[in-house]
Amino acid sequence: MTRLTVNNEAVEYRLPAETPLLWALRDASNLTGTKYGCGTGSCGACTVDVDGRAVRSCQMTLAAAEGTFVTTIEGLSRDRTHPVQLALLAENVSQCGFCIPGIVMAAAVLLRRDPMPSEQAIAAAIGNVCRCGIYPRLAAAIQRAGRAIRGEERLPTGARPGVEPAGAARQVPALDPRQR
């Protein structure tokens, strides 16, 4: 049994010690924001924060994660208002969105360590692969998130059309059975 803290909750996994952290998070904890991309640690879709480091969870075993503090995209900000998330929205970075959770986690770790990163520091820290090609807007968004973290800028928090805040009750219009 492996014990660690995931999103500020003590967890005990009854899985083989060689199980990748990715599968423990996704399958045992139902934290599916951490994505399976390549399985080799190359793409970064599975990036999580482990004790303040951006880690490719497909490459870390449960044995190696024993006693650590892990934060996934779900634990970063339950209401999706972390400055990195807001800046990526404000800069219209996201396209298909598959890689975004890993990028957000890597950027959050970077900004905690360096709230004013250069483009070179961002390129070095964010090695995630994005098939949609968001890179031209990504550095600007991460620098904008840094300004928000430093208190130099306020990011818009308004909802985008078609996107509801987590936990929001969705209003569904009642249908008249005769209109079917």
UniProtKB/TrEMBL annotation:
Keyword set includes Ubl conjugation: no
Domain 2Fe-2S ferredoxin-type: 1-76
Keywords attached to this entry: 2Fe-2S, Iron, Iron-sulfur, Metal-binding, Oxidoreductase
Keyword field contains Membrane: no
InterPro entries xref list: 2Fe-2S-bd, 2Fe-2S-bd_dom_sf, 2Fe-2S_ferredoxin-like_sf, 2Fe-2S_ferredoxin-type, 2Fe2S_fd_BS, Beta-grasp_dom_sf, Diverse_Oxidoreductases
Pfam families the record matches: Fer2, Fer2_2
Region (Disordered): 152-180
Ranges in coiled-coil conformation: none
PANTHER family, per database record: BLR6218 PROTEIN, OXIDOREDUCTASE WITH IRON-SULFUR SUBUNIT
Protein name: (2Fe-2S)-binding protein
Organism the protein comes from: Sphingomonas citri
